[in-house]
Amino acid sequence: MKIRRPQYIPGDYLMVCDRCGFTIRSSEAKKTWDGLMVCVDDYEARHPQDFVRGKEDKQSVPEPRPRPEDVFLTTLVSRDDL
Q: How many domains does the chain have?
């Protein structure tokens, strides 16, 4: 296994990946949608389902009418009626 020794690159610094914990160069890091600075191997794009918006649904009745009053034929109920 070859050991890679860090060399000086002007304006580039070493940093730690927020997911895996490996030391990487800042030029190799990417910022994720939730604010983490990660290496290229740990980078995940935001899922497209996060951007889906709901559509308003019209649930009203087009021609509402009041409920009619109940109509009773008789007020006395006998055992034979049941």
A: 1
**DSSP sequence for 37-81:** EE-GGG--PPPGGGG--PPP---S-SS--PPPPP--S-S---GGG
28 part of a folded domain: yes
Q: Alpha-carbon distance 16 to 73, whole Å?
A: 84
Express each pLDDT in 16-51 by its tens digit.
999 999 999 999 999 999 999 999 999 999 999 999
Per the rule left: phi > 0, alpha: psi between -120 and 50, beta: everything else, 21 is: left
17, exposed or middle or buried, with CB in 10 Å at 0-12, 13-18, 19+?
A: buried
- pTM of the full structure: 0.56
